[in-house]
Design a protein that fits this description.
447 residues; alpha/beta; nine-stranded mixed beta sheet
C-alpha cells in the first residue's frame, strides 16, 4: 500500500466540487427563473423555520486571493444604493411568502457585509425584524474584516441581535500578507475580537488559508497557533484555490511564489496538528470547534448539516437568499440571483424576483445529496440505508481504487473515509455525483 503522503499527493491533485450543494452550481440553468421560484415560495410550510442569507458584494479593498463575488469601493454611494435595492428585494420576497415566517438562522456574507455603517445596519435589521420572526435561540452571524471594524460597528451588531462574527485572518505572516494584499498585524485582529466581546457578540470564528504565496509549513503552523490564542469558538482552514482564469485579480499573485502540492499538504497538516494541540475538535474536512461548541455537539449527535456557508447546526430546509449572486434553497430546488449588480438591481426595481438560474431537485437528486452530505460531514455513509428512505435503488460508486489505497473502507455496505485521508472526502462524494461526468466546470484541487 502506498504511503499516506504519496496517496494524498496523487489523489489530492484531482479536481472535485466542494459539495456545498447537490446538484452543484455549475448544473444550475435558466429554466429555473423568478416565476418558478415565486411558485416555490408560495408553497412553503409556514410551520417550518427558514434561514436567511444576505450577500453584500463590497469590500474597502480587494484581497488578491479572494474567490468571492465582490468588488472594492471606498465610496459610500454604491453601498447605500445597494442597500436600498436589497431592502426592496427583501420586501419583494416577503410578499411572496405564504405568511410571516420564522427564522432559525441569519447570515450576512460578502464581500464584507460589515462594510455597512451602523446606521445602515440598523435600517437593514429593522426591515428584517419587521417582516420575519426569529426562534428564541436563532443564530445571527456576519463576516467582518478586522482592518475596517470599529467599536461603533461592534455595538451596532450587538444591538441588532447578532450572536456570531466570522473574522478573516488567513495568515499572520507579514510576507504572506503583503503577497495577498491583506496586511493586518496580530494586534489589529486581536482588537477586533476584543471589540466584539466588549459589545456582547461572544461567538467568534476565524478563517485561515494554506497554499498562499510565500507561505511555509512553519508560518502556517504559527498562524494557526496565533489564531487559536485569540480563543475563537470555531476555525475554518481552507486551501487557497488559484483560479486566475476566473478571478483576474489573482494574476497579481506570482505563480513562482505559490507552494507546490507537497508543500501545501505539509501546511495543511501543520495547521491541523496545531489546532488539535490547542484543544479544537475536527469538524468535517476543514472546520474546527471547541469541544463544547454546538457544532461539535451536532457532529456527535448526527445533526450537523452542510450548505453554502459550509458546516452548520441550522436544520432549516429553506434558505432564502438575497443580494446579487446569492444562492438559496427551497425544498423543490436551488436558485441563484443575478451576479451582475446592475442586472440584479434592474430586476428588483421592476418588481421581479432577480433569479438568474437554478435547478429543481428530483427524488434521485435528493437521495444522492443525502449520501454526499453524509460523506462530507461524517466521513461515513450507508448508501443502502439512505436509498431506502427515498425508496430508490442505491447508486453504484466505483471506489475500488480508493479502497485498495486505504483511503476508504467498505464493510457490510458502509463506506468509511480513513481519517488520515479526511481531505479526500470530496473524491468519495464525487463517486456518487450523477452529474459530474457531464459537466464542463473546472473545479479546484481536492487538497
Amino acid at each position: 500500500m502506498a504511503s499516506r503522503i504519496t496517496n494524498l499527493l496523487s489523489y489530492g491533485q484531482q479536481r472535485s466540487p466542494r459539495y456545498t450543494s447537490y446538484p452543484t452550481a455549475p448544473h444550475f440553468h435558466e429554466g429555473v427563473n423568478g416565476t418558478v421560484y415565486g411558485d416555490w415560495l408560495d408553497t412553503l410550510d409556514r410551520g417550518k423555520p427558514v434561514s436567511l442569507y444576505l450577500h453584500v458584494p463590497y469590500c474597502k479593498s480587494l484581497c488578491w486571493y479572494c474567490g468571492c463575488n465582490t468588488r472594492a469601493t471606498t465610496q459610500d454611494g454604491p453601498i447605500e444604493a445597494y442597500l436600498k435595492v436589497l431592502l426592496k428585494e427583501l420586501a419583494l420576497v416577503a410578499d411572496r411568502l405564504p405568511g410571516r415566517m420564522t427564522v432559525s438562522h441569519l447570515a450576512l456574507g460578502g464581500g464584507t457585509p460589515a462594510i455597512l455603517s451602523p446606521e445602515q445596519m440598523d435600517r437593514l435589521m429593522a426591515a428584517i425584524y419587521e417582516r420575519f420572526d426569529f426562534v428564541e435561540d436563532a443564530e445571527l452571524a456576519i463576516e467582518i474584516d478586522p482592518r475596517h471594524f470599529t467599536k461603533d460597528d461592534a455595538f451596532a451588531l450587538a444591538r441588532n441581535g447578532f450572536t456570531r462574527a466570522s473574522t478573516g485572518v488567513q495568515s499572520f505572516d507579514p510576507a504572506v500578507q503583503r503577497a495577498i494584499n491583506r496586511v493586518q498585524p496580530y494586534e489589529l485582529v486581536e482588537a477586533s475580537f476584543n471589540r466584539l466581546r466588549e459589545a456582547g457578540v461572544m461567538k467568534i470564528n476565524a478563517d485561515l488559508l494554506y497554499g498562499l504565496p510565500l507561505q511555509t509549513a512553519d508560518s502556517a503552523r504559527a498562524s494557526a497557533e496565533a489564531a487559536a490564542a485569540l480563543d475563537p469558538d470555531r476555525l475554518a482552514v481552507f486551501g487557497y484555490a488559484h483560479v486566475p482564469h476566473m478571478k483576474s485579480h489573482q494574476r497579481l499573485i506570482r505563480d513562482e511564489d505559490l507552494p507546490g502540492a507537497k508543500a501545501r499538504l505539509k501546511q495543511a497538516d501543520a495547521m491541523e496538528r496545531a489546532l488539535i494541540d490547542c484543544g479544537y475538535a475536527l469538524i468535517g474536512i476543514d472546520h474546527y470547534a471547541r469541544p463544547d461548541d454546538p457544532m461539535a455537539r451536532a457532529l456527535e449527535t448526527g445533526t450537523l448539516r452542510r450548505n453554502f456557508q459550509g458546516y452548520t447546526t441550522d436544520k432549516a430546509d429553506t434558505l432564502i437568499a438575497l443580494g446579487a449572486s446569492a444562492i438559496g434553497r427551497a425544498p423543490q430546488g436551488y436558485v441563484q440571483n443575478r451576479s451582475d449588480v446592475r442586472a440584479w438591481m434592474q430586476d428588483v426595481e421592476a418588481g421581479r424576483l432577480p433569479i438568474a438560474k437554478g435547478v429543481a431537485v428530483s427524488r434521485e437528486d435528493a437521495m444522492r445529496a443525502a449520501i454526499i452530505e453524509q460523506v462530507m460531514t461524517y466521513l461515513r455513509v450507508d448508501p443502502e440505508a439512505i436509498a431506502a428512505l427515498y425508496d430508490r435503488p442505491a447508486p453504484q460508486a466505483d471506489l475500488d481504487d480508493l479502497v485498495r489505497s486505504g483511503v476508504v473502507a467498505v464493510e457490510s455496505g458502509v463506506i468509511t473515509v480513513n481519517p488520515a485521508y479526511r481531505p479526500l472526502a470530496r473524491l468519495v462524494a464525487a463517486a456518487f455525483d450523477g452529474y459530474l461526468a457531464t459537466g464542463a466546470a473546472r473545479h479546484s484541487v481536492s487538497v
